Amino acid sequence: MKKVYVAPMAGVTDYTYRRIMSQFNPDLIFTEMVSVNAVEMANDKTIKQILRLLPNDSVQIFGKDIEIMKRSAKFVESLGVKHIDVNMGCPMPKITKNGYGAAMLEDPEHARKLMLALRECLNPETNLSMKIRIGYKEHKDPVRMAEIAKEAGCTHITVHGRTREQMYSGTADWEIIREIKEVSELPVIGNGDIFTPEDALERVEKTGVDGVMLARGIYGNPWLIAQVKEILNEGEVKTHYTVDDKIDMAIKHVEFAREDFPEKEFHFEIRKHLCWYLKGLRHASAVKARINQTESYDEIVELLEKVREANR
């Protein structure tokens, strides 16, 4: 069975959206990525918001200092988390300038020491994995990182098909992912530019990877999780959705956010999600502008219903 994972995405895979996505049964679903320095300082937002967990949530951590990484991983494990991933792929300058994320690709020996230390400190039953890019400025031996993952006892390695320098420009290079899969002794999960179930099928057939990790494709589209699982494992898409389904899901998202956040804050947490749900629908532009101005739950629902009517 091919696996379908949901990527950790800052400001996207929050508690409320994970409640939504979990209904579509991804094989792994990650919280927003967690700074080990924030855990070390007991940062209130990290502990209370990002590490507010659903029963099957997995957590991705990022940092560089081995001792801090170990202490933070043990803390995450103590919350009942069964799978911890190490971020070695985030390309954002505020992350890489400190040697975190994709900057780790420039120092494979430190990455090796870190992963071995994490495996040693975690309970044997706690799964460990790592997520990388195919290189920093160029394709700089990503196979070495797969070897490190194997040596550290990882369950799998996830590979995003761009270099750090590319950020999110251009297209993901799944040919490099295929090359890693051919030599890796671990399961390889491919990531990059999967926006439709057909995208996933094409890339899995091309590379032989053991599964895919969905990221930007699930913005406003949690149905993609089920669709990709179906096409990879059953050969056809069985889950379909209508405009009514999108509006119903948007309203459910608002209701969940209202339960999950204080009354004066919930609207801030859902605005981008609602814009994603409404993308491409008639009357959406005017409604999105109004949603970004209101703090009223009733008005948000009324505006969503207006979009529904405009798309009959």
From TrEMBL:
The active site annotation covers C90
- What EC numbers are recorded for this enzyme? 1.3.1.-
- Species this chain originates from: Propionigenium maris DSM 9537
Q: Which cofactor does it need?
A: FMN
Q: What's the protein called, per UniProt?
A: tRNA-dihydrouridine synthase
What chemistry does it catalyse, as a reaction equation?
A: a 5,6-dihydrouridine in tRNA + NADP(+) = a uridine in tRNA + NADPH + H(+); a 5,6-dihydrouridine in tRNA + NAD(+) = a uridine in tRNA + NADH + H(+)
- Gene3D superfamilies, per this entry? Aldolase class I (3.20.20.70), Putative flavin oxidoreducatase, domain 2 (1.10.1200.80)
| Protein family per UniProt | Belongs to the dus family.
Q: Which Pfam families match?
A: Dus (PF01207)
Which controlled-vocabulary keywords does the entry list?
A: Flavoprotein, FMN, NADP, Nucleotide-binding, Oxidoreductase, RNA-binding, tRNA processing, tRNA-binding
Give every DUS-like FMN-binding domain span: 6-306
Q: Which residues bind FMN?
A: P8, M9, A10, Q60, K131, H160, A215, R216
> What are this entry's molecular-function GO terms?
flavin adenine dinucleotide binding; tRNA binding; tRNA dihydrouridine synthase activity
